[in-house]
Specification:
The structure is a single chain. The protein has one domain: Porin (Beta Barrel). By secondary structure, it is mainly beta. The chain has a twelve-stranded antiparallel beta barrel with strand order 1-3-4-6-7-8-9-11-12-15-16-17. 0% of the residues lie in helices and 70% in strands.
Length: 256
């Protein structure tokens, strides 16, 4: 069993098209835990292992936005939608690890239908996210590549459906010492299909986009035990919130 912790502080502005909305602001503080269980079975002479995962989190969101009636602010402290990873296949080679599977986000987080802006940190719809994670050990550095697609179902209250998207993340961590690594990291988020309202494409599509550029520091204390600190600044933002994010993550092995 492995426990991963994710903690983020995010602050930014709301973008319509490629322009930020004057007077808008959003901030988020969130924490989540992921439990990973590796099944006592393997395939391909031990080169392929199987695992299952679950994620549960909580956060606090503040949003300020201009309206015809003036500035409106709203906030919520609530549970995030949980996620399950029913089966993840991981292939192990001498210096290469590749994991593939599908995550499912469940509409069980807090959602207030009567709220004007912030309905809660739950999305009130399912999301299905196939993924591929690749780690390549280059002796003096480690290259990590993550590709995650996402398909959303329709929000049963608003009848709004966000389009499909793909997020690609890349990190290059140089081995400074036996325990310490640091290096650049980046991600590119791109929505590839239009949003829909009542089954009809919204005008202009409202497709989101963002390029995050940053750096990270990783410190490993031992097998499966370590911490990570990373920062992203977002640019090329379209039709979503764009700003800065500070992440703190940790990994702890558990013996059952």
């Amino acid at each position: 069993m492995q426990i991963l912790g994710y903690n983020v502080y995010y602050t930014g502005s709301i973008y319509t098209g490629s322009h930020d909305v004057a007077g808008s602001h959003a901030s988020l503080v969130a924490s989540a835990l992921k439990a990973i269980y590796t099944w006592p079975v393997s395939l391909a002479s031990g080169k392929v292992t199987l695992s299952s995962e679950a994620v549960l989190g909580v956060g606090h969101l503040n949003v300020t936005a201009p309206t015809p009636q003036g500035q409106v602010s709203s906030h919520s402290t609530s549970f995030l939608d949980p996620a399950i990873f029913p089966i993840e296949f991981t292939w192990h080679a001498a210096n290469l690890t590749s994991s593939t599977g599908v995550a499912v986000w469940l509409p069980l987080g807090s959602y207030d239908q009567s709220a004007r802006i912030v309905h809660g940190l739950g999305q009130n719809h399912y999301a299905i996210a196939p993924f591929e994670f690749i780690t390549y050990d280059m002796q003096n550095a480690i290259l990590d590549l993550a590709i995650v697609g996402e398909t959303n179902t329709t929000n049963s209250y608003t009848k709004y459906r966000s389009g499909n998207d793909i997020t690609t993340t890349l990190a290059l961590s140089y081995k400074v010492t036996t325990h310490l690594m640091l290096g650049p990291t980046a991600y590119y988020y791109k929505q590839i299909s239009d949003d829909k309202q009542d089954g009809v494409n919204v005008p202009g599509g409202n497709r989101g986009q963002a390029l995050g550029l940053g750096a990270q520091i990783v410190y490993g204390f031992g097998p499966g035990l370590g911490v990570l600190l990373k920062f992203f600044h977002e640019t090329l933002v379209r039709n979503r919130v764009g700003g800065n994010a500070l992440w703190f993550e940790f990994s702890v092995p558990l013996r059952l």
